[in-house]
Automatic annotation (TrEMBL):
This is Cytidylate kinase. ATP binds at G13, P14, S15, G16, T17, G18, K19, T20, T21. It catalyses: CMP + ATP = CDP + ADP; dCMP + ATP = dCDP + ADP. Keywords: ATP-binding, Cytoplasm, Kinase, Nucleotide-binding, Transferase. The keyword Nucleotide-binding applies. Belongs to the cytidylate kinase family. Type 1 subfamily. Residues 9-227 form the Cytidylate kinase domain. It is found in: Cytoplasm. GO terms for biological process: nucleobase-containing small molecule interconversion; pyrimidine nucleotide metabolic process. Pfam families: Cytidylate_kin. HAMAP family: Cytidyl_kinase_type1.
Amino acid sequence: MAGALRGVVALDGPSGTGKTTVARMLAAELGAGFLDTGAMYRVVALSALREGVDLADADAVAALARRVQVGIGTDPGQSRVLLDGDDVAEQIRTEPVNVAVSPVSAVPEVRRLLVAGQREIIASVLGSAGGIVVDGRDIGTVVAPDAPLKVFLTASAEVRAARRTAQDSAAGRQADTEAVLASVRRRDELDTTRATSPLRAADDAEVLDTSELTIDQVVAALSELAKRRGLLGGEFVEAGR
């Protein structure tokens, strides 16, 4: 182990940059907690699809978000995602959810509810484990703006589409590269132009292009950044000091 993580590492970036995979691996390597905030929005999106909620009806989506029970694990060694107590870790990765999650996550009330829950989880894990790696699209800008290390992962749309196609195929889900590329570009457009918490790098974030990097290389780079910030064991220093 490179050293126990102290504090929050915020990983942001668009779909297909490997955020969740590297966040989970980094957390495991550094003995920290792990939070996939995107999975929380996906749970609400899956529930909306199951209940036939009109995704264009913000009030209906918000009402659903207020009553649905979202459960998310913070152990990097296992994937635990619950919808009203049922394990939906596989179901939230399907293409219908990929399409539905952007309009769902654009609803201000949905974001308010889930961000509040995310902050509670982060505080709880910091109190017990001392460190947590959090990935999403607004972690460094909204959820944890005081995180001592913020990283914005990027990669070309083509590389990200190829990665997601390979991931879907490996999981036994039907995947077509051109369709996935179109989906990636559509998600980018929706996420970067939404009125509430649009996808963008925090002003003080480190930008890391993963296009030519392996997963292990990205994890190593993130671990080195955490080390440089003084986050591995002992006391950590605030960003900018």
